[in-house]
Design brief:
Number of helices: 5
Distance between the termini: 96 Å
CATH topology of one domain: Nuclear Transport Factor 2, Chain: A
Helix content: 40-55%
Radius of gyration: 32 Å
Order of helices and strands: HHHHHEEEEE
Largest sheet: 5 strands, antiparallel
Strand content: 25-35%
CATH class of one domain: Alpha Beta
Structural class: alpha+beta
Number of strands: 5
Length: 218
Amino acid sequence: MNNTILQLLILAGVALFLIFRLKNVLGTRDGFEPKGKDVDSTKIEERKNTEDSSDNNLDEEATEYLFDDKNSANALTKIKEIEKNFSLTDFLGGAGSAYEMILMAFQSGKISPVETFLSADVKENFEEAVQEREQKGLSIDADFIGLRDTAVKNISFRDGVAEISVSFLADVKSVVKNNNGEIIEGEEADTKKQFDVWVFSREIGSDNPNWILVETGA
Protein backbone atom coordinates (compact mmCIF):
# COMPACT_ATOMS: atom_id res chain seq x y z
CA MET A 1 0.00 0.00 0.00
CA ASN A 2 1.53 3.26 -1.08
CA ASN A 3 1.65 6.45 0.97
CA THR A 4 -1.17 8.16 -0.94
CA ILE A 5 -3.72 5.43 -0.16
CA LEU A 6 -2.60 5.32 3.46
CA GLN A 7 -3.08 9.07 3.82
CA LEU A 8 -6.60 8.86 2.33
CA LEU A 9 -7.59 6.12 4.78
CA ILE A 10 -6.32 8.20 7.72
CA LEU A 11 -8.26 11.28 6.55
CA ALA A 12 -11.44 9.21 6.09
CA GLY A 13 -11.07 7.85 9.63
CA VAL A 14 -10.65 11.36 11.04
CA ALA A 15 -13.75 12.56 9.14
CA LEU A 16 -15.87 9.71 10.51
CA PHE A 17 -14.66 10.46 14.04
CA LEU A 18 -15.56 14.18 13.73
CA ILE A 19 -19.04 13.36 12.39
CA PHE A 20 -19.65 11.03 15.31
CA ARG A 21 -18.52 13.69 17.79
CA LEU A 22 -20.75 16.38 16.24
CA LYS A 23 -23.80 14.14 16.46
CA ASN A 24 -23.14 13.53 20.14
CA VAL A 25 -22.70 17.23 20.89
CA LEU A 26 -25.44 18.75 18.73
CA GLY A 27 -27.97 15.90 18.70
CA THR A 28 -30.36 15.13 15.86
CA ARG A 29 -33.95 15.92 14.99
CA ASP A 30 -34.85 12.43 16.29
CA GLY A 31 -33.83 13.37 19.81
CA PHE A 32 -35.90 14.94 22.63
CA GLU A 33 -37.87 18.07 21.68
CA PRO A 34 -40.10 19.89 24.22
CA LYS A 35 -43.82 19.73 23.46
CA GLY A 36 -46.52 22.24 24.48
CA LYS A 37 -46.48 21.23 28.12
CA ASP A 38 -42.74 21.61 28.30
CA VAL A 39 -42.88 25.08 26.74
CA ASP A 40 -45.41 26.14 29.36
CA SER A 41 -43.07 24.89 32.08
CA THR A 42 -40.28 26.94 30.54
CA LYS A 43 -42.44 30.08 30.62
CA ILE A 44 -43.36 29.47 34.26
CA GLU A 45 -39.68 29.14 35.11
CA GLU A 46 -38.91 32.38 33.26
CA ARG A 47 -41.63 34.21 35.23
CA LYS A 48 -40.22 32.83 38.46
CA ASN A 49 -36.75 34.04 37.52
CA THR A 50 -38.18 37.50 36.75
CA GLU A 51 -39.89 37.65 40.15
CA ASP A 52 -36.68 36.53 41.85
CA SER A 53 -34.81 39.25 39.96
CA SER A 54 -37.31 41.85 41.21
CA ASP A 55 -36.72 40.70 44.78
CA ASN A 56 -32.97 40.91 44.20
CA ASN A 57 -33.33 44.49 42.95
CA LEU A 58 -35.01 45.42 46.22
CA ASP A 59 -32.23 43.70 48.14
CA GLU A 60 -29.60 45.49 46.07
CA GLU A 61 -31.13 48.92 46.76
CA ALA A 62 -31.47 48.17 50.45
CA THR A 63 -27.87 46.97 50.57
CA GLU A 64 -26.53 49.86 48.53
CA TYR A 65 -28.33 52.70 50.32
CA LEU A 66 -29.50 51.43 53.71
CA PHE A 67 -26.66 49.12 54.83
CA ASP A 68 -27.80 47.41 58.07
CA ASP A 69 -30.79 49.68 58.73
CA LYS A 70 -33.48 46.99 58.91
CA ASN A 71 -36.29 49.39 59.82
CA SER A 72 -35.63 51.49 56.72
CA ALA A 73 -35.31 48.34 54.59
CA ASN A 74 -38.70 47.12 55.84
CA ALA A 75 -40.23 50.52 55.07
CA LEU A 76 -38.78 50.38 51.55
CA THR A 77 -40.29 46.92 51.09
CA LYS A 78 -43.76 48.19 52.06
CA ILE A 79 -43.43 51.14 49.66
CA LYS A 80 -42.51 48.82 46.79
CA GLU A 81 -45.40 46.49 47.58
CA ILE A 82 -47.78 49.39 46.84
CA GLU A 83 -45.82 51.06 44.04
CA LYS A 84 -44.07 48.29 42.13
CA ASN A 85 -42.01 50.69 40.00
CA PHE A 86 -40.65 52.76 42.88
CA SER A 87 -36.88 53.14 42.63
CA LEU A 88 -34.77 54.60 45.41
CA THR A 89 -32.11 55.43 42.81
CA ASP A 90 -34.58 57.49 40.77
CA PHE A 91 -35.89 59.12 43.95
CA LEU A 92 -32.40 60.29 44.92
CA GLY A 93 -31.89 61.75 41.46
CA GLY A 94 -35.11 63.74 41.79
CA ALA A 95 -34.27 64.76 45.36
CA GLY A 96 -30.94 66.15 44.19
CA SER A 97 -32.66 68.28 41.54
CA ALA A 98 -35.26 69.46 44.08
CA TYR A 99 -32.51 70.35 46.54
CA GLU A 100 -30.76 72.61 44.04
CA MET A 101 -34.02 74.26 42.93
CA ILE A 102 -35.38 74.88 46.44
CA LEU A 103 -32.05 75.98 47.92
CA MET A 104 -31.47 78.52 45.15
CA ALA A 105 -35.05 79.82 45.50
CA PHE A 106 -34.48 80.36 49.22
CA GLN A 107 -31.13 82.06 48.66
CA SER A 108 -32.64 84.42 46.10
CA GLY A 109 -35.63 85.16 48.34
CA LYS A 110 -38.15 84.01 45.71
CA ILE A 111 -40.08 81.15 47.28
CA SER A 112 -43.23 81.17 45.13
CA PRO A 113 -41.82 79.09 42.20
CA VAL A 114 -41.16 76.15 44.55
CA GLU A 115 -43.92 76.53 47.15
CA THR A 116 -45.87 73.56 45.78
CA PHE A 117 -42.95 71.34 46.87
CA LEU A 118 -42.95 72.70 50.44
CA SER A 119 -45.06 71.76 53.42
CA ALA A 120 -46.94 74.58 55.12
CA ASP A 121 -44.43 74.66 58.01
CA VAL A 122 -41.35 74.72 55.77
CA LYS A 123 -42.87 77.40 53.55
CA GLU A 124 -43.64 79.55 56.60
CA ASN A 125 -40.11 79.14 57.97
CA PHE A 126 -38.57 80.05 54.62
CA GLU A 127 -40.78 83.12 54.24
CA GLU A 128 -39.94 84.33 57.76
CA ALA A 129 -36.22 83.95 57.08
CA VAL A 130 -36.51 85.85 53.79
CA GLN A 131 -38.53 88.66 55.44
CA GLU A 132 -36.00 88.97 58.26
CA ARG A 133 -33.21 89.21 55.68
CA GLU A 134 -35.05 91.91 53.75
CA GLN A 135 -35.77 93.90 56.92
CA LYS A 136 -32.05 94.00 57.59
CA GLY A 137 -31.44 95.24 54.05
CA LEU A 138 -29.54 92.11 53.09
CA SER A 139 -29.56 89.96 49.99
CA ILE A 140 -27.73 86.82 48.89
CA ASP A 141 -26.10 86.18 45.53
CA ALA A 142 -25.54 82.45 45.11
CA ASP A 143 -24.45 79.96 42.46
CA PHE A 144 -24.98 76.23 42.75
CA ILE A 145 -21.78 74.57 41.52
CA GLY A 146 -22.81 70.95 41.95
CA LEU A 147 -23.65 68.06 44.27
CA ARG A 148 -20.81 66.12 45.79
CA ASP A 149 -22.91 63.46 47.48
CA THR A 150 -26.45 62.40 48.37
CA ALA A 151 -27.26 59.68 50.88
CA VAL A 152 -30.38 58.14 52.40
CA LYS A 153 -30.35 58.62 56.16
CA ASN A 154 -33.66 57.01 57.06
CA ILE A 155 -36.95 55.74 55.59
CA SER A 156 -40.21 55.45 57.50
CA PHE A 157 -43.67 54.33 56.38
CA ARG A 158 -46.75 54.86 58.56
CA ASP A 159 -50.45 54.98 57.70
CA GLY A 160 -49.72 55.04 53.98
CA VAL A 161 -47.29 57.98 54.20
CA ALA A 162 -43.58 57.60 53.50
CA GLU A 163 -40.85 59.89 54.78
CA ILE A 164 -37.32 59.71 53.38
CA SER A 165 -34.48 61.62 55.04
CA VAL A 166 -31.68 62.56 52.66
CA SER A 167 -28.33 64.24 53.29
CA PHE A 168 -26.83 66.54 50.65
CA LEU A 169 -23.27 67.78 50.28
CA ALA A 170 -22.93 70.48 47.63
CA ASP A 171 -20.48 73.08 46.38
CA VAL A 172 -21.98 76.57 46.47
CA LYS A 173 -20.70 80.07 45.88
CA SER A 174 -22.54 82.75 47.86
CA VAL A 175 -22.04 86.26 49.19
CA VAL A 176 -24.20 88.46 51.41
CA LYS A 177 -24.69 92.06 50.28
CA ASN A 178 -26.19 95.15 51.91
CA ASN A 179 -28.57 97.69 50.34
CA ASN A 180 -25.64 99.40 48.64
CA GLY A 181 -24.60 96.19 46.93
CA GLU A 182 -21.48 95.89 49.05
CA ILE A 183 -20.31 92.43 50.07
CA ILE A 184 -20.40 92.12 53.84
CA GLU A 185 -19.95 88.35 54.07
CA GLY A 186 -18.20 85.82 51.84
CA GLU A 187 -15.98 86.11 48.77
CA GLU A 188 -17.26 85.88 45.20
CA ALA A 189 -14.37 83.64 44.18
CA ASP A 190 -14.74 81.23 47.10
CA THR A 191 -16.57 77.93 46.86
CA LYS A 192 -17.89 76.55 50.12
CA LYS A 193 -19.34 73.17 51.05
CA GLN A 194 -23.04 73.22 51.90
CA PHE A 195 -24.35 70.31 54.00
CA ASP A 196 -28.05 69.76 54.70
CA VAL A 197 -30.37 66.96 55.81
CA TRP A 198 -33.87 67.26 54.36
CA VAL A 199 -36.93 65.07 54.86
CA PHE A 200 -39.32 64.44 51.97
CA SER A 201 -42.82 63.02 52.39
CA ARG A 202 -45.49 61.55 50.12
CA GLU A 203 -48.66 59.48 50.34
CA ILE A 204 -47.73 56.22 48.61
CA GLY A 205 -50.25 55.15 45.98
CA SER A 206 -51.46 58.71 45.49
CA ASP A 207 -52.01 60.08 41.98
CA ASN A 208 -49.79 63.03 42.92
CA PRO A 209 -46.20 61.99 42.17
CA ASN A 210 -44.59 64.96 43.97
CA TRP A 211 -42.62 64.50 47.15
CA ILE A 212 -43.00 67.39 49.62
CA LEU A 213 -40.19 68.86 51.72
CA VAL A 214 -41.42 68.61 55.31
CA GLU A 215 -38.26 69.25 57.33
CA THR A 216 -34.85 70.88 56.94
CA GLY A 217 -31.78 70.61 59.11
CA ALA A 218 -28.07 69.86 59.16
